[in-house]
UniProtKB/TrEMBL annotation:
Keyword Methyltransferase: no
Keyword Zinc in annotation: no
Record's protein name: Allophanate hydrolase subunit 1
Keywords: Hydrolase
Boundaries of every Carboxyltransferase domain copy: 4-103
Annotated Gene3D superfamilies: 3.30.1360.40
A Gene Ontology molecular function term of the record: hydrolase activity
Length: 111
């Protein structure tokens, strides 16, 4: 898979791995994110992983799109495989008063 690079505004480089969600793209994004965390470039502020791409924000007073792309390409040389079994989250919900007074605004009670 060959990533595509695109300048976004003056402070972000968008690295896109695919046009559609796939296991390969979903594996490449966190792998690059981990590599960037291990080999942070000067001026890099934050990579923000998504499903098929990784926007990398940076300080434009310290670096530029070309330098950031060169750094990211260097990180792509040694792919990392990240396996994740996922995480179960339990969200407690209460639908009774007094915690649900706003629910009636969206779904009025049936008569």
């Amino acid at each position: 898979m060959t990533p595509r690079f695109k300048a976004i505004a003056d402070h972000t480089l968008l690295v896109t791995f695919a046009d559609e969600i796939s296991d390969e793209a979903c594996g490449a994004v966190p792998a690059l994110d981990a590599d960037l965390a291990a080999q942070a470039a000067g001026g890099m502020i934050e990579p923000v992983p998504a499903m098929i791409n990784l926007p990398v924000s940076f300080d434009p007073l310290v670096t530029d799109h070309d330098a950031m792309e060169t750094h990211v390409r260097g990180c792509l040389g040694a792919p990392i495989t990240i396996q994740s079994a996922g995480v179960t989250r339990r969200v407690q919900v209460c639908y009774e008063d007094p915690f649900s007074s706003d629910l009636g605004l969206f779904h009025p009670p049936k008569a």
